[in-house]
């Protein structure tokens, strides 16, 4: 069952120290979702876990923060964790609206020993902070500027276009084709990838037609990066 967002306290500790009986796996200090950036309408996810290395049984309740900009959910919100057991929690973040501020949030964990259900709970939180959100546009917002000037990335020729008075290069992918789908998803992951913060050329996306809108100045850099990344992948 997925939890729904709530107003959570920003003062809850993010330190999963010895006072928190369960072991956080992996040992992270914050949620990153593997990205510096989100793309409007496309979910990001991160999986964490807890290990009970004690002799006691604990009840864990997971609560997500709410925001008018995004949906933050978990695949399961209540757990009973016995001695020696491990659990996993998948956390999903999706921005339903374009936003330049308020790109932060948290997931809260409340823990009680099962034999002391009337006692106070121990609370910890994991927070996230993204740097930006790529906007999603409607097909009608995209206007072709020229058929003459084209830019090639991977297997697709990009077409010089305008969206909301901004010049972009539009790359339309047939996601029913396996190889085009790979490039479509690869460009998204490269843009969001925490290891490539300098690739900031994704100006938008049209989800209905699987069209990626790029800043023309970064098309060449992105093509080089794709060739390098795919060469490294196939060399293993």
Written account of the structure:
This protein is mainly beta. It is 14% helix and 39% strand. It has two helices and 16 strands. The strands form four sheets. Strands 11, 12, 13, 14, 15 and 16 form a six-stranded antiparallel β-sheet that branches. A hairpin with an 8-residue loop joins strand 8 and strand 9. The model is unreliable at 232-236 (pLDDT under 50). Keywords: Receptor.
Summarize the structure.
The protein has two helices and 16 strands. With 236 residues, the protein is mostly beta strands.
Topology (elements, then pairings):
Layout: E1 23-25, E2 37-39, E3 44-51, E4 58-64, E5 70-74, E6 78-81, E7 86-95, E8 104-113, E9 122-129, E10 132-134, E11 142-144, E12 150-153, E13 156-163, E14 166-172, H1 178-192, E15 202-206, E16 211-214, H2 219-235
Parallel strand pairs: 2-10
Antiparallel strand pairs: 1-3, 3-7, 4-6, 4-8, 5-7, 8-9, 11-13, 12-13, 13-14, 14-16, 15-16
Overall mean pLDDT: 86
CATH homology superfamily of the largest domain: Immunoglobulins
| N-to-C order of helices and strands | EEEEEEEEEEEEEEHEEH
How many structural domains in the coordinates?
2
In DSSP terms, counting alpha (H) and pi (I) runs of 4 or more, how many helices?
Answer: 2
Summarize the biggest pleated sheet: 6 strands, antiparallel
Distance between the termini: 39 Å
Question: For the record, what CATH class of the largest domain applies?
Answer: Mainly Beta
* Count of extended strands: 16
Keywords: Receptor
Protein name: Ephrin typeA receptor 4A, putative
């Amino acid at each position: 069952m997925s939890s729904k967002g709530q107003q959570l306290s920003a003062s809850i500790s993010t330190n999963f120290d010895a006072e928190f009986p369960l072991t956080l796996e992996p040992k992270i200090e914050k949620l990153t979702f593997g990205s510096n950036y989100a793309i409007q309408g496309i979910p990001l996810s991160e999986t964490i876990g807890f290990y009970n290395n004690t002799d006691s049984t604990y009840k864990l309740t997971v609560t997500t923060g709410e925001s008018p900009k995004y949906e933050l959910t978990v695949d399961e919100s209540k757990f009973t964790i016995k001695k020696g057991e491990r659990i996993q929690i998948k956390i999903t973040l999706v921005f339903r609206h374009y936003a330049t501020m308020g790109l932060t949030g948290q997931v809260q964990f409340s823990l009680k020993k099962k034999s002391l259900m009337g006692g106070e709970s121990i609370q910890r939180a994991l927070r996230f902070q993204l740097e930006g959100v790529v906007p999603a546009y409607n097909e009608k917002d995209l206007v072709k500027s020229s058929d003459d000037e084209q830019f090639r990335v991977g297997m697709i020729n990009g077409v010089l276009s305008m969206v909301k008075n901004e010049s972009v290069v539009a790359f339309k992918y047939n996601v029913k084709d396996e190889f085009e789908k790979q490039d479509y998803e690869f460009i998204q992951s490269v843009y969001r990838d925490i290891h490539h913060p300098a690739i900031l050329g994704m100006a938008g996306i049209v989800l209905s037609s699987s069209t990626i809108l790029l800043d023309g100045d970064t098309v060449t850099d992105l093509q080089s990066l794709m060739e390098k990344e795919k060469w490294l992948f196939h060399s293993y």
